[in-house]
Amino acid sequence: MSEDAIIAASGLTKQYGEILAVDHVSFKVKKGEIFGFLGPNGAGKTTTIRTLTGLSKPTAGSAQVLDFDVDSEIVEAKKQIGVVPELSNLYDELSAVDNLVFMAQLYGVPRSQRKERAEQLLKMFRLYERRNDSFAKLSRGMKRALTIAAALVHNPKLLFLDEPTVGLDVVAARSLRSLIRNLRQQGITIFLTTHYLEEADALCDRISILVKGRIVTVDTPEALKSSVGSDMPVEISLTAPPQKFVEEVSAKLPYLRAVPINNKVRILGGRPAEVLEVVLQSARHAAVEIETVTTVRPTLEDAFIKITGLEPTVMAMEKGGRR
Amino acid sequence: MKDIKTYYLKPPAISWGIVFPVAWILAFYLRSPRAFEDLVPGLIAMTILFSTTAAEAVVINFELRIGSLERLLLAPLTFSAVLLGKVLGGAIFGLLMTALVTICSVVGLGLHVNVVQLVLIIGPSLFAFSAMGALLCVLVKEVFEAQTLANLPRFLMMFLSGVFYPLSAMPPLLRYVAYLLPLTYTVEGIRHALSPTDTVPVLIDSLILIAVAVIFTAPAIKLLRRRFL
């Protein structure tokens, strides 16, 4: 493993019966970066984390975490990594501080330092006033924050975050993202999985897009956005639902990608002048009124659509295809 | 300590681990106070059996269901360490109940007891049955499934291991079956400890129970590992 690589996966594969959850995935995570695994539910993100953290054995391939092989040396690796699973699974009956002290005990933090470390983390995560409340009584956002604190109790070099903001309201999610940025500033390498495009864009130094168990691309958010090309996306705001309008646009210029988002339509792949002509015609034929037409800078969403061919709404779908 | 705080006051642990053995003890005492002394070894053994296995179902299956067992496995612990920790927890819960029943019986009835022999039997028994409970628990998902599955060996042993009537009173075939059941050695060992005689039979019973603990623990660890990996 190169000096800078904290994680190195080579041909990592995980099969459950006939389901190939992770399909020969190879990537490296550099020291000090926030590396994102972005993909829809069921893409293999959590399975990858479980394989890297010892909860699952790879079917094929290999991975090293902090120079430890995940198959044969995982207990050693675990001493220096923290893991925040998707589910906030601390103990309901224990208080916030007792949960952290227990975790400190599990990770071998010296007895004399456990309480102090727990209180330090509670203050960092703005939970000190609630330190004696049971985990069950905390709000969802606080539970999430405490679960992250529990993963930091032993000062790990590497932190795995599996869907850290799922289920949180906007304010709590924003607060948590700010915390995650602070952790990176403290020198902790972060491996993050998410299906929120804006979260990956906001937090990650590099993003790996994962679809059906395969890595489609790995690059910085800016490079991914640039890959959309010189054709600027055009965003049209309509006064009515856009379905008929989208059909008209697709019929006139099939090579354009028209993606409906509420009452807006984002058109990718054509020159703005050409697109404008088609937009005006399509609006007339679909009998809808146009409120605004704007050329916009490519977003990660545009890059995701172009690279994967998937609609952004697929990111919100449950595993198995249910919404 | 975490398991004690979190799980030992949950309904399944209380109902199967505390209420059930206490109810049986009271029932037999009230039925025949004079003959109760003869039943004490069997009732202490039954307390060990039910309290340890009840605790395991709550601790292991509850944690499997809510994902807390995964939390332990994310720490730098081996599967063996996690499972042995659970077995130890079940043994401690069993010890608390067993100590209460034993002390009340010995003091209440004025029994003479060889404490060393008693410890030699009760210690390995707690681990053996806690390990049995752990093995049954990793086979299933839910707490109620674990309790139901555990009832098969528990009730079998309760009626065939000399808890309520001595082995000498059993037909020969059932006596052979009894010697295949680990609870038999617990009952016989406690009976020896409460009627102090030679230590050798107690040592043999103790060694058999230690072997039983190992026999149950090894596959439990393997099954737990297979569940995740």
Explain what you see.
The complex is a heterodimer of chains A (323) and B (229). Chain A has 323 residues and is an alpha/beta fold. Chain A folds into 2 domains: 5-225, Rossmann fold (3-Layer(aba) Sandwich), CATH 3.40.50; 230-297, 2-Layer Sandwich (Alpha-Beta Plaits), CATH 3.30.70.100. Chain A has helices at 45-52, 74-78, 96-106, 111-124, 140-151, 170-185, 197-203, 221-226, 243-252, 272-286, 300-308; strands at 5-16, 19-30, 34-38, 60-65, 68-69, 81-84, 158-162, 189-194, 206-211, 214-219, 234-238, 257-261, 264-268, 290-295. In chain A, the strands form 3 sheets. Chain A has a 6-stranded mixed β-sheet, with helices on both faces. Chain A has a 4-stranded antiparallel β-sheet with strand order 2-1-4-5. In chain A, strand 7, helix 6 (170-185) and strand 8 form a beta-alpha-beta unit. In chain A, helix 3 crosses helix 4, helix 3 packs parallel to helix 5 and helix 9 (243-252) packs across helix 10 (272-286). Classes of the chains: A alpha/beta (323), B mainly alpha (229). Chain A binds chain B through residues 53-57, 75-76, 78-79, 83, 85, 87, 89-94, 98, 102-103, 106-108, and chain B through 2, 5-6, 66-68, 70-78, 228-229.
Salient structural properties:
heterodimer, A: 323 residues, alpha/beta, Rossmann fold, Alpha-Beta Plaits, 2 domains, 6-stranded mixed β-sheet, 11 helices, elongated, disordered C terminus, B: 229 residues, mainly alpha, 10 helices, 82% helix, 0% strand, globular
Task: Describe how the helices and strands are arranged.
The complex is a heterodimer of chains A (323) and B (229).
Chain A: E1 5-16, E2 19-30, E3 34-38, H1 45-52, E4 60-65, E5 68-69, H2 74-78, E6 81-84, H3 96-106, H4 111-124, H5 140-151, E7 158-162, H6 170-185, E8 189-194, H7 197-203, E9 206-211, E10 214-219, H8 221-226, E11 234-238, H9 243-252, E12 257-261, E13 264-268, H10 272-286, E14 290-295, H11 300-308
Parallel strand pairs in A: 3-8, 3-9, 6-7, 7-8
Antiparallel strand pairs in A: 1-2, 1-4, 4-5, 9-10, 11-13, 11-14, 12-13
Helix pairs in contact in A: 3-4, 3-5, 9-10
Chain B: H1 2-7, H2 11-31, H3 36-66, H4 68-74, H5 79-109, H6 115-139, H7 143-160, H8 172-178, H9 182-194, H10 200-228
